[in-house]
Structure formats: C-alpha cells, structure tokens
Design brief:
single chain; 3-stranded antiparallel sheet; 17 helices; mainly alpha
C-alpha cells in the first residue's frame, strides 16, 4: 500500500492552504498555515525570536529545501512550497517565500528587504522583513535561533497518517535502485503493458476463472505462503513505480520504507520533490505504483503460461484488488493523491472544515472558502460531501461492530493456535508459517481499530478541553459531550448475551442485520423469512438440546400478515394468527437464523 505527496508513502505534504493577504510597505500581512502545530497564523515564536530578528544575518535552519511555486495549483494564488529537515512540507505566500529565499546566511536585513522588493515588485522595508521573520518564519521552524541552534519543531500528526515509520533506503540508494525502472515509462512500453494487463484481467476473470486456482492453492499450504510472499513483494514493487515515475519526470525521490497505515502494514516512498513537476508529472508519479502492479500481473501471467500452475493466477487477482483499493480517494491512498494533483489542491483534508462552513447559509463567508479557483472549489466540495458522511459511517460501524470483531478474532485465533500447535508437532513448517500469518492477520485489524478509536477519543477530549480553557459554560458543555461519548461507547461495548458472540457462517452481515443487532426489539416485529433475528427456544427440563451435528425436528410459529385468512380451530374456536412451519433445528435451514441451541432454557 502506498500513497504519495504527504500520505503514508511520503513525508507529510502541504498541510494547509496559503493564507490570503499580501504585503505592502509598512503593513505586512502575509501568513503561512502549517499542519505542523506551530507557527500558524501569527503564533508566538520561540523566546529568542526578537533576538534573531535583530540579528544582522539571519540563517535558515539546517535541511530546509526551497521547492518553489506549486505548478498547476487549484488556488487562485499559487502557494510556494518549502520543506523542513523533518520532512514537513509547508505552504508559504509568495512574499514569505521570497524573504526566505533571500536568507542565505550572508545577506543582512536591509539586503534581504532589497532582494524581496525586486522580486515582489513592491517595496518591502527592513521592518517588514523583521516582522515576517519574527511572526512567521521563526515559528514555522525555518530559521536558526539566536544562539545558532536549530529550532525545535513539531511535525503534523494527522489521524489518517502513517505510524511507526521505518526507512529501509536513504534517498541516494533509492535513486540508484529505481533509476533502471524509469525506462518502463516509455510511452510504447506503457501502451503495451496496459493492453496486456486488460487482456489478462479479461481472460482470468471471465474465461479461465479462479476455481482451479483456489483449489490448488489451498490444497497446498506452501502455495498459499508463496502467494502471500509474492503479494507482499509486489506491494514493495508498487513503491518502485512511484519513485521511478518521479525520476522520469525529473524529480528526485527520497527514502523508502515501511510502517503501519490505519490497521495494516504498508510501504511508503517519499516523492515530495514531485511537487516541482507540473500536473502531468505529478499524476504520472501517482499512477506509477498502479502501473507497476499491472506489470506484476502481466509477468505472473507469463510465468503461468510457462509453468501451468493455476495457483499463480491468484496473484493476478491480488494485484487487481490492490489497484482497486488504492484508487479509493477517501483516505490517503493513491486515489486521494490523484484527485489532489488533478485539482491542484494537495491538502484535501485541510479543506473539509472551510468547505463545510461555507455551506452554512446563515454564516458569513469564510475567507478560506474563497482561496480556490471556482472549478477546483466545486470538485473539492463534492469530495467533502461524499467523504465526510462515509468516514462518519465507517467510524460508527467500527464502534458498533468492534465487540463482534473481537469475539470473532478471539474464536478464530484459538482455532489457528490449535492448528499451529498441530503443525509444529507434526513438523509441517509450511502450514505452521501459514498459521502464524493467519494469527497476525487476525490481530492487526483489532489492534488498528483500537488504536484509531483511542486516538480519536483522546483528540476529542484534549481538543475540547484546550479550546474551552477559561470559558466555564463551554467547558461544562464539553464535559457533557465527553460524558455522552463515553456513555455511548459503554452502551455499545457493554458485555451481554450476544455482544461478543463470534460471527457465524449463516449470518449475512448486511446493513439491515447491523440495525437488527443495535435495535433487536424493533427488528423482531418486522423480521421476515430468511432474515436474522433473536429467537426463544423452549425445552422441557432435562431434555437433550439440539446441535448442528445432531438436529431435532421442531416447529416455528410464523405470524400471518394482516388481512390473510385463517382457518378455525378444530372445535370452532377463534382463528389462530400463527402458521406452524416445520424446521429441523440446527440443520440446513438453521444457517439463516441463530442456532436454536442458543435460546433460553425453561
């Protein structure tokens, strides 16, 4: 898995839009927004800010890279990009960028002001430069402190960012190992690979099918392990595609490594330098990973042609699934960056708040909402209106289904552990390796969900507490909101009869079933044939209960719909509103319902 330009596959990209405003002589007003948590919108700088501003020769912080104006920007005034040594990319207004560009460790304040005036086209005084340095460049960690030491900066830490990064290659090594692959972006090669990939997909999915491949793979644990290894290696090769595409366009890729994104291990490639490229070059970089997935699929098809091992065709399917997942623009996958680079708005998540506020009819227009070009603003608004509800729905689903996920993971983990013990005892190393991977795959989603929810709750609590400091009424409201969230989590996760029950093979897992799990009483009245629900089974005291292996014949009473005619009882009494339906308990029909053996015993 990878994304580029500030997502999991690269260092954090431009986190915020450039602020409005320019600078005039005697009244500078440019500001620079940063997701780094420091220096945004005139925040106070270090204690030595004034001393630095009064120094005759300001010096840039070590490792600061001047990327330049963003090409093909969706903003009305294209921002200029600067990258710190910690990998954080910051957007600056043009005047701030010109001042920082003039700071070379040799020019004094007056010389910097003259250089900025010549480039900006308007007079910028020395006092303007001191103000910009003190209020903007120092808080953003772009200049050295008064004593010559490097500034302490805080990097942005978005909720949907990559965690626990570990670099495998440095930038020099990345450039060396990816240089040969840049030739694969020759237009003739791209057309040939694309045509071969489309033909491969059609033949595998529509002609050959996957039944024989699945049977062959799962009949041999060694083949399953091989498919998993090839799939993981192909994910790493995906990163080569991003780096090689950046080199093809003239940008310099950075480090490559691995980490944890959301709940799964992932690879990343730092291609922040591709911001130097135009829209076409950035899109080539975004699509480079998907293109290399297509190369893997075509190569595997060639190996299958030579060997005839049907199990290899499953690798083709894994490549297709990876590509489909990467194209989702909701989180920082490749699809997110494709949309960001197509619109020229590299900070889509930072645009959510101003976009939603701009849609409130009774609220004054937020200046942030007018920064984008009309067409870019329309595209971003559509993205926000689709993404926000889906993310909220995903979060609610995650909270409500966590108990069942935990129960299922625990139940299947015990089964995998038992099979692992058997494999180790019999000396079947391949099967043991498969079981270890299966246990890890069960544990990682659970740990990822818990981590995301814990961090979200912590951010909500600390954010509300910080914003309501000194405001008694708002603080009380915040406490009530936090208590309401805690009560909701307790309600959703409180242990009950079925709360942590493992998911069963006869369950469908539809949205209607999820509603039934939350509101069982309301769902029971409208339960129809084939749907899941809660039932009550009665047995005589001491009677043997049925199991799936040893079912018993029973009768289920199904309410008639209103208006349906009924027959009189055997003695002419009142007509019965129920119809008896024979059912072999815990047998085949029971797979669509909860096991009868789980009912109440009286």
């Amino acid at each position: 898995m990878s994304t580029v330009h500030g997502g999991p596959s690269g260092q954090d990209g431009p986190p915020a839009a450039p602020a409005t405003g320019g600078a005039t002589a005697g009244a500078p007003s440019p500001v620079a927004d940063s997701g780094a948590g420091v220096g945004a919108r005139g925040a106070a700088g270090p204690a030595s800010s004034v001393a630095v501003a009064q120094q005759p020769v300001p010096v840039r912080a070590a490792g600061v890279q001047l990327i330049g104006e963003a090409k093909g920007s969706g903003y009305k005034e294209a921002p200029s990009l600067v990258r710190r040594a910690d990998g954080q990319t910051i957007q600056l207004t043009r005047l701030l960028y010109l001042v920082l560009e003039a700071i070379d460790g040799q020019r004094g304040i007056e010389e910097i002001a003259g250089h900025a005036s010549d480039s900006f086209g308007r007079l910028v005084s020395a006092e303007n430069v001191r103000t910009l340095i003190t209020s903007q460049l120092l808080p953003l960690g772009l200049l050295q402190l008064a004593d010559g030491s490097e500034p302490a900066v805080k990097k942005s830490n978005p909720l949907l960012g990559m965690r626990f990064r570990y670099s495998v290659t440095d930038p020099d090594r990345t450039r060396k190992i990816t240089a040969p692959f840049a030739t694969l972006f020759n237009p003739l090669i791209v057309v040939a690979v694309t045509a071969a990939f489309l033909a491969t997909c059609w033949w595998v999915l529509m002609v050959k099918g996957l039944a024989s491949a699945t049977h062959e793979a799962f009949a041999n644990p060694g083949l399953v392990l091989l498919i998993l290894v090839v799939t993981v290696l192909s994910a790493g090769f995906h990163e080569f595609g991003h780096a090689a595409a950046a080199r093809r366009g003239g940008a310099t890729p950075g480090a490559m490594g691995t980490g944890l994104y959301l709940m799964w291990p992932a690879f990343y490639t730092d291609v922040t330098d591709s911001y130097r490229l135009g829209r076409g070059g950035r899109l080539r970089t975004d699509l480079g990973g998907l293109y290399f997935n297509a190369i893997v699929a075509v190569a595997i098809m060639g190996i299958w042609w030579a060997t005839g091992f049907d199990a290899l065709l499953l690798v083709v399917v894994t490549q297709i699934l990876q590509m489909v997942r990467q194209l989702m623009p909701l989180v920082r996958f490749d699809g997110y960056h494709i949309l960001a680079d197509a619109t020229g708005v590299p900070d889509l998540f930072q645009r959510i708040k101003p976009t939603l506020l701009a849609l409130v009819p009774w609220r004054k227009t937020d200046p942030e909402a007018g920064l984008l070009k009309p067409w870019a603003r329309a595209v971003v608004t559509i993205w926000v209106l689709v993404t926000v509800p889906l993310l909220l729905f995903s979060m609610a689903t995650m909270v409500l289904t966590l108990p069942r996920v935990l129960g299922t993971a625990w139940d299947n983990g015990l089964k995998q552990q038992a099979m692992l013990s058997h494999s180790v005892a019999t000396g079947d190393i391949a099967d043991a390796a498969v079981r270890v991977i299966a246990i890890a795959c069960l544990a990682l989603p659970v740990l990822g969900i818990l981590y995301i929810l814990l961090r979200l709750v912590r951010q909500l609590a600390t954010g509300l507490w910080r914003k309501t400091r000194g405001k008694a009424l708002q603080r009380a409201t915040a406490i009530v909101a936090i208590a309401a969230v805690a009560a909701g989590l307790a309600w959703a996760w409180w242990p009950g009869a079925d709360t942590y029950r493992p998911v069963q093979p006869y369950e469908r897992g539809t949205l209607a079933d999820a509603t039934t799990a939350v509101f069982p009483a309301a769902a029971a009245a409208r339960m129809a044939e084939g749907q899941s629900g809660t039932t009550v089974a009665l047995w005589p005291e001491g009677a043997r209960r049925p199991t799936r292996e040893d079912p018993q014949l029973s009768m289920v009473l199904v309410p008639r719909q209103s208006g349906t005619s009924t027959t009189a009882g055997p003695r002419g009494g009142a007509r019965c509103p129920f119809v008896g339906v024979p059912l072999r308990q815990a047998g085949r029909a029971g797979r669509r319902r909860q096991p009868v053996a789980r009912g109440q015993h009286h």
